[in-house]
Fold each of these.
Amino acid sequence: MKNYNELKETSKVIRQDIIKMLHESGSGHPGGSLSSTEIVTALFFKEMNIDPKDPNWEERDRFVLSKGHAAPVLYAALAEKGFFPKEELMKLRKTGSMLQGHPDKKGTPGVDMSTGSLGQGLSISNGMALSAKLDNKDYRVYTILGDGEIQEGMVWEAAMFSAHYKLDNLIAFLDHNGLQIDGKNEEVINVEPVDKKFEAFGWNVIKIDGHNFEEIFNAIDGGKETKGKPTIIIANTIKGKGVSFMEDEAGWHGKAPNDEEFKIALSELGGDK
């Protein structure tokens, strides 16, 4: 159990590792990895019931990174948690590495589901959550969706399913940073009012600052206390959070920093110069 200061330090390390592995690989997705860092940190280092020594423990809570391109934040958290050695992070996207560009449950300890084809993660999470109810298991399912992803119809079909089957053991986060690969959401396909949409689909909706640990945990508690319906936590975040030249810039959705940018980013994040 970590306090907020410890979690803030952990999130700083995870951000540093994201930048390091992306610089080493020369490719990847920094923007959405950095925007969801506090959410992932909160789940893996305080909230979820998981065991790095037994990644496939049947009673564990499940996590689905529906926006699979944000794999660097998941990998950094798994390594920091002890699922595999941190040296593996520097092999991101290398041939034969356990850490490919999108999560692979067959190759990476701690990954509960292979993701990357956007729109599928909520449906997968539904299956896990419904399975828990059918088997009378107490584990919970957590998933993270992206802004561009929720423009896909499969997400809303899954949202209807979640509500219909009263999956109150499912908590979804929307990493709501307002940007996607082609620019601002409202310029591509406007998703607002996203809160009203989920409410209309029968969900419990909570809106928070996605970089504030207290708000994150209060929202999770609110979701756990809600009975008979799933919960969506709309987390307002900043794409590229923590690196000045990446913040709120769609261009950093899927681009690795060069040598000079790497030095600046790592310095801003309190890492090695």
Amino acid sequence: MRRLTVVALSGLLLAGIAQAEPLNYNVVNLQAEARRDVPNDLMAVTMFAEQSDNDANRLSAGLNKALNMAKGMADAYPKVKFYSGENQTYPVYDNKNRASGWRGRVEAKLECRDFKQCAELIGKMQSVLQIGQWTFSVSPERRREVENELIGDALQAFNQRAEIVRSSLKAKGYKVVNLNVGGGDVEPPHPVYAKRAMAMAAEAAPAPVAEGGTGAITVTVTGAVQLAD
């Protein structure tokens, strides 16, 4: 009985190896992608105020006043999201390394999809705050939507490459062994008009022009195909 059991198990192992064996040859790894330039639909702006004073409490009061004034302006624009950013206060030292006063900084962050309204608000807020960074990007919702649309294009490109390999190697056909679909590749937001905007702030200029540009979204398909003799 033991011998029969060993023989039976050996037969099963050999059968398993025989079934797995076709995966060990004629396997080709492939990669394909689909890419699309999408208009940026999200605008993010960081604005700040910096002040110096000999009295820390007076400094804090002045910075809070500037931030509250900016918040009051933003309340008139419901389509623009207003967030408080970093709030810093630190001592200032003279050339003899003695504390000579205080310097502080407060930040306000704006986020919007209506670029015209946001630019108009920025123009008003420049009376109390300066522009630190101004970026455009593709919103997460729009990015997911485009990625879903690109999956079909990426798979089609993968199949086209597999067919080119099959034809070039004169194989009868191919089957997909494994497949991975990856999305989320998008150009990171980058500052736009930052230097120009800061220069305009000093002149209390009217609302700047907000042009969002585009962001590239890519979906990549990687996998392997087995060629049939």
